[in-house]
Model the fold of this input.
Amino acid sequence: MIVTSKQSKSSFSAASGLSALLLATTLMLAAAPAKADWITTWSAAPVRPMTNLGPAMAAPSFKNQTLVQTLRISAGGKALRVRLTNLYGEKALEIGGARVALLDKDGKEVPGSAHMLAFTGKPTAAIAPGAPLLSDYIALPTRDLARLSLQIYVPGETGPCTCHQVGLDKMLVSPPGNHLGKAFTPVQTLQNRPFLAAIEVDAIRGAGTIAMMADSITDGVGSTVAANRRWPDYLAARLSAASPGKWGIANQGISGNRVLSDGMGVSALARLDRDILALPGVRTLIVFEGVNDLGIAFGAAQRAAATGQPNPFHDGTIVTAETMIAGYRQIVERARARGVKVIGATIAPYKGATYWTQEGEAVRQQINAAIRSGKLFDDFLDFDLAFRDPANPLQMRPGYHIGDHLHGTDAGYEAIAKSINLSLLK
Done:
Protein backbone atom coordinates (compact mmCIF):
# COMPACT_ATOMS: atom_id res chain seq x y z
CA MET A 1 0.00 0.00 0.00
CA ILE A 2 1.29 3.44 -0.94
CA VAL A 3 0.67 6.17 1.61
CA THR A 4 0.25 9.67 0.21
CA SER A 5 1.72 12.74 1.85
CA LYS A 6 -1.75 13.83 2.88
CA GLN A 7 -2.50 10.37 4.38
CA SER A 8 0.88 10.37 6.13
CA LYS A 9 0.21 13.74 7.70
CA SER A 10 -3.26 12.60 8.71
CA SER A 11 -1.90 9.38 10.25
CA PHE A 12 0.84 11.28 12.06
CA SER A 13 -1.72 13.75 13.38
CA ALA A 14 -3.98 10.95 14.58
CA ALA A 15 -1.08 9.12 16.23
CA SER A 16 0.06 12.31 17.92
CA GLY A 17 -3.45 12.96 19.16
CA LEU A 18 -3.72 9.42 20.52
CA SER A 19 -0.35 9.73 22.28
CA ALA A 20 -1.39 13.02 23.82
CA LEU A 21 -4.68 11.50 24.94
CA LEU A 22 -2.92 8.52 26.51
CA LEU A 23 -0.45 10.80 28.27
CA ALA A 24 -3.23 13.04 29.55
CA THR A 25 -5.17 9.99 30.76
CA THR A 26 -2.09 8.66 32.56
CA LEU A 27 -1.47 11.99 34.24
CA MET A 28 -5.13 12.24 35.27
CA LEU A 29 -4.96 8.78 36.82
CA ALA A 30 -1.80 9.75 38.70
CA ALA A 31 -3.13 13.09 39.89
CA ALA A 32 -4.60 13.60 43.31
CA PRO A 33 -8.38 13.36 43.70
CA ALA A 34 -10.27 16.63 43.42
CA LYS A 35 -10.39 18.66 46.64
CA ALA A 36 -8.03 16.31 48.44
CA ASP A 37 -6.96 17.25 51.98
CA TRP A 38 -3.57 15.58 52.26
CA ILE A 39 -1.92 15.30 55.64
CA THR A 40 1.07 13.35 56.88
CA THR A 41 -0.09 10.45 59.03
CA TRP A 42 3.26 8.69 59.56
CA SER A 43 6.89 9.59 58.97
CA ALA A 44 10.49 8.58 59.62
CA ALA A 45 13.34 11.04 59.09
CA PRO A 46 16.15 9.68 56.88
CA VAL A 47 19.73 9.71 58.15
CA ARG A 48 22.99 9.85 56.21
CA PRO A 49 24.80 6.47 56.24
CA MET A 50 27.40 6.50 59.01
CA THR A 51 30.88 5.38 57.97
CA ASN A 52 32.95 6.16 61.07
CA LEU A 53 31.11 4.35 63.88
CA GLY A 54 31.84 0.72 63.09
CA PRO A 55 29.77 -2.08 61.53
CA ALA A 56 27.04 -1.96 64.20
CA MET A 57 25.98 1.50 63.01
CA ALA A 58 26.63 0.97 59.30
CA ALA A 59 23.68 1.35 56.95
CA PRO A 60 22.70 -1.87 55.17
CA SER A 61 22.83 -2.33 51.40
CA PHE A 62 20.43 -4.35 49.28
CA LYS A 63 20.51 -5.94 45.82
CA ASN A 64 17.67 -7.68 43.96
CA GLN A 65 15.64 -8.02 47.16
CA THR A 66 12.19 -7.27 48.51
CA LEU A 67 11.94 -5.23 51.72
CA VAL A 68 8.83 -5.55 53.88
CA GLN A 69 8.09 -2.91 56.51
CA THR A 70 5.26 -2.79 59.05
CA LEU A 71 3.99 0.49 60.45
CA ARG A 72 1.02 2.08 62.19
CA ILE A 73 -0.48 5.31 60.89
CA SER A 74 -2.19 7.88 63.12
CA ALA A 75 -5.14 9.53 61.33
CA GLY A 76 -7.06 7.59 58.71
CA GLY A 77 -8.42 8.86 55.42
CA LYS A 78 -10.20 8.19 52.13
CA ALA A 79 -7.07 7.64 50.05
CA LEU A 80 -3.39 7.02 50.63
CA ARG A 81 -0.03 7.70 49.01
CA VAL A 82 3.55 6.86 49.91
CA ARG A 83 6.60 9.14 49.96
CA LEU A 84 9.85 7.30 49.23
CA THR A 85 13.31 8.85 49.47
CA ASN A 86 16.79 8.57 48.02
CA LEU A 87 18.04 11.57 49.98
CA TYR A 88 21.54 10.23 50.62
CA GLY A 89 21.88 7.97 47.60
CA GLU A 90 24.90 8.52 45.37
CA LYS A 91 23.11 7.19 42.29
CA ALA A 92 19.55 6.74 41.07
CA LEU A 93 17.57 4.22 43.14
CA GLU A 94 15.62 1.71 41.07
CA ILE A 95 12.17 0.81 42.38
CA GLY A 96 11.11 -2.40 40.67
CA GLY A 97 7.68 -2.36 42.29
CA ALA A 98 5.93 -1.50 45.54
CA ARG A 99 2.87 -2.84 47.27
CA VAL A 100 0.80 -1.76 50.26
CA ALA A 101 -1.83 -3.64 52.29
CA LEU A 102 -3.76 -3.24 55.51
CA LEU A 103 -2.98 -5.63 58.36
CA ASP A 104 -5.36 -7.08 60.92
CA LYS A 105 -4.66 -7.39 64.63
CA ASP A 106 -2.75 -10.63 64.01
CA GLY A 107 -0.49 -9.06 61.41
CA LYS A 108 -2.18 -10.77 58.45
CA GLU A 109 -3.21 -8.90 55.32
CA VAL A 110 -6.83 -7.80 55.24
CA PRO A 111 -8.40 -9.53 52.21
CA GLY A 112 -8.96 -7.16 49.31
CA SER A 113 -6.84 -4.36 50.78
CA ALA A 114 -3.62 -4.98 48.85
CA HIS A 115 -2.69 -2.49 46.11
CA MET A 116 0.30 -2.19 43.84
CA LEU A 117 1.66 1.34 43.90
CA ALA A 118 2.17 3.34 40.72
CA PHE A 119 4.41 6.31 40.02
CA THR A 120 2.93 8.68 37.44
CA GLY A 121 0.95 5.74 36.15
CA LYS A 122 3.88 3.33 35.93
CA PRO A 123 4.67 0.33 38.17
CA THR A 124 8.41 1.08 38.36
CA ALA A 125 10.49 4.20 38.91
CA ALA A 126 13.97 5.57 39.43
CA ILE A 127 14.53 8.05 42.26
CA ALA A 128 17.20 10.62 41.50
CA PRO A 129 20.02 11.04 44.04
CA GLY A 130 18.94 13.40 46.80
CA ALA A 131 15.28 13.35 45.79
CA PRO A 132 12.00 12.05 47.19
CA LEU A 133 9.40 10.17 45.13
CA LEU A 134 5.67 10.47 45.75
CA SER A 135 3.48 7.58 44.63
CA ASP A 136 0.16 8.01 42.88
CA TYR A 137 -2.74 7.87 45.30
CA ILE A 138 -4.73 4.70 45.87
CA ALA A 139 -8.36 4.71 46.93
CA LEU A 140 -7.77 2.76 50.10
CA PRO A 141 -9.92 3.93 53.03
CA THR A 142 -8.05 3.66 56.31
CA ARG A 143 -9.14 4.07 59.90
CA ASP A 144 -7.21 5.81 62.65
CA LEU A 145 -4.28 3.77 64.03
CA ALA A 146 -4.47 1.27 61.16
CA ARG A 147 -1.49 -1.01 60.56
CA LEU A 148 0.06 -1.26 57.12
CA SER A 149 2.53 -3.46 55.31
CA LEU A 150 4.70 -1.76 52.71
CA GLN A 151 6.74 -3.91 50.33
CA ILE A 152 9.45 -2.45 48.08
CA TYR A 153 11.37 -4.42 45.45
CA VAL A 154 14.82 -3.02 44.62
CA PRO A 155 16.21 -4.82 41.55
CA GLY A 156 19.61 -3.15 41.48
CA GLU A 157 22.37 -2.63 44.00
CA THR A 158 21.32 0.18 46.33
CA GLY A 159 24.58 0.97 48.09
CA PRO A 160 24.34 2.05 51.76
CA CYS A 161 20.67 2.86 52.17
CA THR A 162 18.94 6.11 52.93
CA CYS A 163 17.43 4.74 56.12
CA HIS A 164 15.87 5.79 59.36
CA GLN A 165 17.97 3.79 61.80
CA VAL A 166 15.58 3.20 64.72
CA GLY A 167 12.45 1.74 63.14
CA LEU A 168 11.34 -0.17 66.26
CA ASP A 169 9.51 -2.75 64.17
CA LYS A 170 10.57 -5.79 62.18
CA MET A 171 11.80 -5.15 58.63
CA LEU A 172 12.07 -8.31 56.57
CA VAL A 173 14.68 -8.74 53.82
CA SER A 174 13.95 -11.37 51.18
CA PRO A 175 16.22 -13.78 49.32
CA PRO A 176 17.09 -12.57 45.79
CA GLY A 177 14.10 -11.76 43.63
CA ASN A 178 10.79 -9.95 43.42
CA HIS A 179 8.63 -11.32 46.22
CA LEU A 180 5.91 -8.65 46.17
CA GLY A 181 2.72 -10.25 47.43
CA LYS A 182 4.46 -13.58 47.97
CA ALA A 183 5.50 -15.41 51.12
CA PHE A 184 9.23 -15.85 51.70
CA THR A 185 11.67 -16.85 54.40
CA PRO A 186 13.65 -13.71 55.29
CA VAL A 187 17.41 -13.76 55.05
CA GLN A 188 17.58 -10.82 57.48
CA THR A 189 15.32 -9.20 60.03
CA LEU A 190 16.29 -5.59 60.72
CA GLN A 191 14.75 -2.52 62.36
CA ASN A 192 15.69 0.08 59.78
CA ARG A 193 13.26 2.08 57.64
CA PRO A 194 14.91 1.90 54.19
CA PHE A 195 13.82 4.39 51.52
CA LEU A 196 10.52 5.21 53.28
CA ALA A 197 9.93 8.81 54.37
CA ALA A 198 6.18 9.21 54.97
CA ILE A 199 2.63 8.00 54.52
CA GLU A 200 0.05 10.61 53.51
CA VAL A 201 -3.74 10.32 53.59
CA ASP A 202 -6.63 12.29 52.16
CA ALA A 203 -8.16 13.11 55.53
CA ILE A 204 -11.37 14.72 56.72
CA ARG A 205 -11.80 18.44 56.09
CA GLY A 206 -9.99 20.48 58.73
CA ALA A 207 -7.54 17.73 59.67
CA GLY A 208 -3.88 18.54 60.23
CA THR A 209 -0.54 17.07 61.23
CA ILE A 210 1.43 17.51 64.45
CA ALA A 211 5.14 17.08 63.73
CA MET A 212 7.96 16.44 66.20
CA MET A 213 11.49 17.81 65.76
CA ALA A 214 13.31 15.67 68.24
CA ASP A 215 15.93 13.08 69.23
CA SER A 216 16.08 9.51 70.56
CA ILE A 217 13.57 10.09 73.36
CA THR A 218 10.93 10.80 70.72
CA ASP A 219 12.38 8.21 68.35
CA GLY A 220 11.31 5.77 71.05
CA VAL A 221 14.61 4.25 72.20
CA GLY A 222 13.79 2.05 75.19
CA SER A 223 10.18 1.34 74.23
CA THR A 224 8.89 -2.11 73.37
CA VAL A 225 9.73 -3.10 69.79
CA ALA A 226 6.76 -3.61 67.44
CA ALA A 227 4.29 -2.32 70.04
CA ASN A 228 3.95 1.39 69.08
CA ARG A 229 4.75 2.72 72.54
CA ARG A 230 6.76 5.84 71.75
CA TRP A 231 5.24 8.95 73.32
CA PRO A 232 3.97 10.19 69.91
CA ASP A 233 2.20 6.82 69.53
CA TYR A 234 0.45 7.28 72.87
CA LEU A 235 -0.42 10.84 71.85
CA ALA A 236 -1.89 9.60 68.56
CA ALA A 237 -4.19 7.24 70.46
CA ARG A 238 -5.32 10.06 72.79
CA LEU A 239 -6.02 12.38 69.86
CA SER A 240 -7.91 9.70 67.94
CA ALA A 241 -10.15 9.05 70.94
CA ALA A 242 -10.80 12.76 71.46
CA SER A 243 -11.12 13.88 67.81
CA PRO A 244 -11.28 10.92 65.40
CA GLY A 245 -9.55 11.50 62.08
CA LYS A 246 -8.44 15.04 62.90
CA TRP A 247 -4.74 14.72 63.72
CA GLY A 248 -1.91 12.97 61.95
CA ILE A 249 1.43 12.49 63.68
CA ALA A 250 4.79 12.99 61.95
CA ASN A 251 7.45 11.69 64.33
CA GLN A 252 10.68 13.18 62.96
CA GLY A 253 12.84 12.19 65.91
CA ILE A 254 16.38 11.07 65.07
CA SER A 255 18.42 9.30 67.72
CA GLY A 256 21.46 11.38 68.63
CA ASN A 257 20.15 14.49 66.88
CA ARG A 258 21.09 18.00 68.02
CA VAL A 259 19.76 21.51 67.56
CA LEU A 260 23.00 23.26 66.62
CA SER A 261 25.32 20.58 65.20
CA ASP A 262 25.29 17.68 62.79
CA GLY A 263 26.03 14.17 64.00
CA MET A 264 23.36 11.50 63.91
CA GLY A 265 21.38 13.29 61.22
CA VAL A 266 21.97 16.88 60.26
CA SER A 267 21.10 19.49 62.88
CA ALA A 268 17.54 20.54 63.61
CA LEU A 269 18.33 23.92 62.08
CA ALA A 270 19.50 22.28 58.85
CA ARG A 271 16.67 19.77 58.48
CA LEU A 272 13.70 21.90 59.53
CA ASP A 273 12.51 22.78 56.01
CA ARG A 274 12.90 19.28 54.61
CA ASP A 275 11.78 17.16 57.57
CA ILE A 276 8.99 19.39 58.89
CA LEU A 277 7.87 22.27 56.69
CA ALA A 278 7.82 20.25 53.45
CA LEU A 279 5.38 17.70 54.86
CA PRO A 280 1.73 18.18 53.86
CA GLY A 281 -0.73 19.26 56.51
CA VAL A 282 1.69 20.32 59.26
CA ARG A 283 -0.10 22.82 61.52
CA THR A 284 1.74 22.30 64.80
CA LEU A 285 5.39 21.57 65.55
CA ILE A 286 6.61 20.21 68.89
CA VAL A 287 10.31 20.85 69.52
CA PHE A 288 11.77 18.46 72.10
CA GLU A 289 15.47 18.54 71.54
CA GLY A 290 18.66 19.80 73.19
CA VAL A 291 19.91 17.18 75.63
CA ASN A 292 22.43 15.87 73.10
CA ASP A 293 23.80 19.37 72.50
CA LEU A 294 24.45 19.63 76.25
CA GLY A 295 25.73 16.11 76.75
CA ILE A 296 28.16 16.16 73.84
CA ALA A 297 29.41 19.70 74.38
CA PHE A 298 30.06 19.21 78.10
CA GLY A 299 30.01 15.55 79.15
CA ALA A 300 31.57 13.93 76.11
CA ALA A 301 34.12 16.73 75.92
CA GLN A 302 35.19 16.13 79.52
CA ARG A 303 35.59 12.39 78.92
CA ALA A 304 37.62 13.04 75.79
CA ALA A 305 39.91 15.43 77.67
CA ALA A 306 40.35 12.97 80.55
CA THR A 307 41.25 10.07 78.25
CA GLY A 308 43.22 12.06 75.72
CA GLN A 309 40.95 10.77 72.97
CA PRO A 310 39.24 13.07 70.46
CA ASN A 311 35.53 13.73 70.75
CA PRO A 312 34.26 12.59 67.32
CA PHE A 313 30.86 14.24 67.77
CA HIS A 314 31.88 17.72 68.83
CA ASP A 315 32.53 20.11 65.94
CA GLY A 316 33.58 23.08 68.03
CA THR A 317 30.14 24.68 68.16
CA ILE A 318 29.80 26.85 71.23
CA VAL A 319 26.90 25.57 73.32
CA THR A 320 25.49 27.97 75.88
CA ALA A 321 21.99 28.89 76.98
CA GLU A 322 22.22 31.89 74.68
CA THR A 323 23.27 29.94 71.56
CA MET A 324 20.67 27.25 72.20
CA ILE A 325 17.88 29.80 72.71
CA ALA A 326 18.97 31.57 69.53
CA GLY A 327 18.69 28.24 67.70
CA TYR A 328 15.18 27.66 69.05
CA ARG A 329 14.18 31.19 67.99
CA GLN A 330 15.31 30.44 64.44
CA ILE A 331 13.10 27.34 64.36
CA VAL A 332 10.15 29.31 65.73
CA GLU A 333 10.44 32.18 63.27
CA ARG A 334 10.93 29.95 60.24
CA ALA A 335 7.97 27.76 61.18
CA ARG A 336 5.69 30.70 61.99
CA ALA A 337 6.43 32.15 58.56
CA ARG A 338 4.78 29.02 57.14
CA GLY A 339 1.75 29.32 59.44
CA VAL A 340 2.90 26.58 61.80
CA LYS A 341 2.36 26.88 65.56
CA VAL A 342 5.47 25.94 67.54
CA ILE A 343 5.30 24.30 70.97
CA GLY A 344 8.51 23.83 72.93
CA ALA A 345 9.05 21.00 75.41
CA THR A 346 11.39 21.44 78.36
CA ILE A 347 14.55 19.29 78.28
CA ALA A 348 14.05 16.19 80.43
CA PRO A 349 16.27 15.48 83.46
CA TYR A 350 19.32 13.34 82.71
CA LYS A 351 21.52 13.24 85.78
CA GLY A 352 23.02 9.75 85.95
CA ALA A 353 23.44 9.53 82.17
CA THR A 354 27.01 8.98 81.05
CA TYR A 355 27.34 12.47 79.59
CA TRP A 356 25.70 14.46 82.42
CA THR A 357 27.78 17.26 83.97
CA GLN A 358 27.07 20.12 86.36
CA GLU A 359 27.92 22.56 83.56
CA GLY A 360 25.40 20.97 81.21
CA GLU A 361 22.81 20.89 83.98
CA ALA A 362 23.20 24.62 84.58
CA VAL A 363 22.53 25.32 80.91
CA ARG A 364 19.51 22.97 80.94
CA GLN A 365 18.00 24.90 83.83
CA GLN A 366 18.45 28.20 81.97
CA ILE A 367 16.91 26.81 78.80
CA ASN A 368 13.93 25.33 80.65
CA ALA A 369 13.33 28.62 82.45
CA ALA A 370 13.26 30.39 79.08
CA ILE A 371 10.78 27.82 77.72
CA ARG A 372 8.53 28.11 80.78
CA SER A 373 8.53 31.91 80.52
CA GLY A 374 6.17 31.62 77.56
CA LYS A 375 8.23 34.08 75.54
CA LEU A 376 10.25 31.63 73.47
CA PHE A 377 7.61 29.38 71.89
CA ASP A 378 3.90 29.82 71.15
CA ASP A 379 3.17 27.37 73.99
CA PHE A 380 5.17 24.87 76.01
CA LEU A 381 5.00 21.32 77.36
CA ASP A 382 6.73 20.52 80.64
CA PHE A 383 8.31 17.14 79.90
CA ASP A 384 10.94 17.86 82.57
CA LEU A 385 8.17 17.88 85.17
CA ALA A 386 6.46 14.79 83.70
CA PHE A 387 9.66 12.73 83.64
CA ARG A 388 11.38 13.85 86.84
CA ASP A 389 11.68 11.98 90.12
CA PRO A 390 9.92 14.10 92.80
CA ALA A 391 12.54 12.94 95.31
CA ASN A 392 15.43 13.90 93.03
CA PRO A 393 14.28 16.40 90.38
CA LEU A 394 17.55 16.28 88.43
CA GLN A 395 16.90 12.61 87.58
CA MET A 396 14.16 10.70 85.81
CA ARG A 397 11.65 8.90 87.99
CA PRO A 398 12.53 5.22 88.66
CA GLY A 399 10.58 3.05 86.25
CA TYR A 400 10.37 5.86 83.71
CA HIS A 401 13.82 5.18 82.22
CA ILE A 402 15.54 2.02 81.01
CA GLY A 403 18.42 2.26 83.48
CA ASP A 404 20.50 4.78 81.58
CA HIS A 405 18.76 7.83 83.12
CA LEU A 406 18.12 9.16 79.62
CA HIS A 407 15.72 7.04 77.55
CA GLY A 408 12.18 6.27 78.59
CA THR A 409 10.36 3.04 79.25
CA ASP A 410 6.85 2.41 77.97
CA ALA A 411 5.57 3.82 81.26
CA GLY A 412 7.74 6.91 80.98
CA TYR A 413 6.64 7.61 77.42
CA GLU A 414 3.00 7.10 78.32
CA ALA A 415 3.39 9.52 81.24
CA ILE A 416 4.70 12.37 79.11
CA ALA A 417 2.00 11.76 76.49
CA LYS A 418 -0.62 11.96 79.22
CA SER A 419 0.90 15.20 80.50
CA ILE A 420 0.05 17.00 77.26
CA ASN A 421 -2.94 19.32 77.41
CA LEU A 422 -4.76 18.46 74.19
CA SER A 423 -6.35 21.90 74.07
CA LEU A 424 -2.92 23.28 73.10
CA LEU A 425 -3.17 21.26 69.87
CA LYS A 426 -6.48 22.68 68.66
Residues 1-30 have pLDDT under 50 and may be disordered. The radius of gyration is 24 Å. The chain has two domains: 56-201, 206-425.
